[in-house]
Amino acid sequence: MYPQFYEMMGFQHPGGVCFEGCPPAPNLSTTALLIDFDGTLIDMAETPDQTFVPKEVPETMSRLAEAAGGAVAVITGRSVDEVRRLLPGYTGAIVGGHGAEVLVGTDHWVHPLAGSETVAKMTQIAHALTALDPRLIVEPKPAGVAVHCLRVPEMHSRICKFMDAIRQQFPEFDVCCGRRAVELRPRDVNRADAVIRLLDRTPFKGRRPVYFGDDQLDERAMEYVVGTGGFAIKVGDAESYASHRLRGSKEVRDCLEVWSTPRRSAA
Ligand SMILES: O=P(O)(O)OC[C@H]1O[C@H](O[C@H]2O[C@H](CO)[C@@H](O)[C@H](O)[C@H]2O)[C@H](O)[C@@H](O)[C@@H]1O
């Protein structure tokens, strides 16, 4: 519903209200907005394919990207193509594969190991793990592979061990045992460094960074953002470098909706 409509009816548009936890909108013309995807912008789902993107999200993200002169980035473990598919029309930047891919404008950088024989072999071996339990899900990525064990948490530590055994055959890779997924990715890839590099290039350079994240993986990036005079918003109650808290993805989306409607945001 348009803000003007609420006004005509004598109500305040919900998008114009900064609620508890949602900081007042920063000046988007001097801000670099960095937003984690799963668990932050979008609610967690039982499998990566069941992820549901509310229909207003791509539009909100596009509005933010436009207002920020392109200095908005989705920071994620998913591939760039996957984010493009889930956010049709979004023209901001995407850091995919935890930093193994970076899309800014039309410049799409991919890690040299992306699409390599090595990744294909690793992915094939990871697929064999599903013989242990069909509820395990293998997600191939351009420069690595993830095995999701959200539906079989009791297998988590076994999967970590298996994936570590696979990794020993591929020295250029590291294993990351996350809470919900175990992932192999290039050793030299991590999201904090990817964020630092992103903030050093146009149109992000010289802007004040603001980071939304939910995961332990976001923390080093948040530490950097806070250390450079920006601020961070943590989703959930885990320990964090962030100065602000939101309870869940719905609140993140509501907050971004407020921010993308500058005329109505708090000063
Ligand atoms: O960096 P993020 O944007 O937070 O991405 C982290 C991983 O998210 C996805 O997997 C996770 O979310 C799925 C959907 O909610 C869930 O089913 C799965 O168990 C989680 O691990 C994504 O599929 C991965 O590629 C990302 O690395």
UniProtKB/TrEMBL annotation:
Root EC class: hydrolase
Pfam families: Trehalose_PPase
Required co-factors: Mg(2+)
GO biological process, one term: trehalose biosynthetic process
Pathway of action: Glycan biosynthesis; trehalose biosynthesis
GO molecular function: metal ion binding; trehalose-phosphatase activity
Recorded catalytic activity of this chain's protein: alpha,alpha-trehalose 6-phosphate + H2O = alpha,alpha-trehalose + phosphate
Keyword tags: Hydrolase, Magnesium, Metal-binding
EC nos: 3.1.3.12
Record carries keyword Hydrolase: yes
UniProt similarity note: Belongs to the trehalose phosphatase family.
Protein function: Removes the phosphate from trehalose 6-phosphate to produce free trehalose.
Protein's recorded name: Trehalose 6-phosphate phosphatase
